[in-house]
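User: My instructor asked us to take a sequence, write out its structure as tokens, and then describe one feature of it. I'm not sure where to start. Here is the sequence I was given:
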Amino acid sequence: MRQIWAAARYNFMGFFRNSRTVITFLLSVIVCFLLSGRVMEVADRFGTSMQAAEPFIWTFGDATAILLVSLLLIFLFSDLPKLTAFTPFYLMRMTKKKWLAAQFLYIVLVTTLYVAFILLTTVLLCMKRSFPGNLWSETAAILGYSSIGEELHVPSTVKVMESVSPFGCMLQAGALMLGYSLTLGFLILLGNLLAGKKYGMLLALGYSLYGFLLDPEVLGGLLGMEDYEMFRVRSVVGWISPLNNAVYGMHDFGYDNLPSIGQSLLIFAGLLLLMYLLALRALRRYNFTFLGG
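Assistant: Let's start with the prediction itself. The structure tokens for your sequence are:
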């Protein structure tokens, strides 16, 4: 484990000074600012406050918002696996399996940092109208019990507020976003190992497009389905689409035939394990190319 941690830690050298990292985090701030404006609009209109976790919950409670922020990870992880002048040093002192585990550990740490940064950003952007108490706010009640939330495309629903507290909802929504983001990062690494640099980005873009096309509203519009047929579409898509598994509102709260939070997390864990095993197999034929001195 010490060797794996040492190799993963080396990947962080210069990480916060890297222009790719700076641009990714700056763009995520812009995305959070634009998306959280919908929630702030309601609070400003009615002069109400929000619970501190609600901006994150309502902002990233639909598939489009999660897709937008996760796409930035494609840019951040495009150089995986990291090959530097020190990579041969590590490969001579550890097995390829341990070196690959270090790459996956790096993805996990960076993705966790990225999701935590998004959470903190949404909290800070809306802090002038937020309070720390673990109770749903008047703003949440307005969004959930009226048509305003639907009109502004803010996914606030009564079934969510009845089933869990704001901080509990925030942790579950963050775990789902983390699971989806990790599958995207692992997929980029797997694609680069299988077919070379840049193919991982194409694979990740295809993965994102698959999730977008399987959005119930998008799929229903493409197939010309009526409103009464959408219930079945949502049920099927909620199970087979990783992106919809990352959406908190697309889960079973005792009303729908949808996966539970735990089942979605198990689905993500299964996908991550599958990609890790495929990456191990691809590493046997991977051609290491080192440039520079």
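For the description part of your assignment, you could build on this observation: The chain has 15 helices and two strands. Try explaining in your own words what that tells you about the chain.
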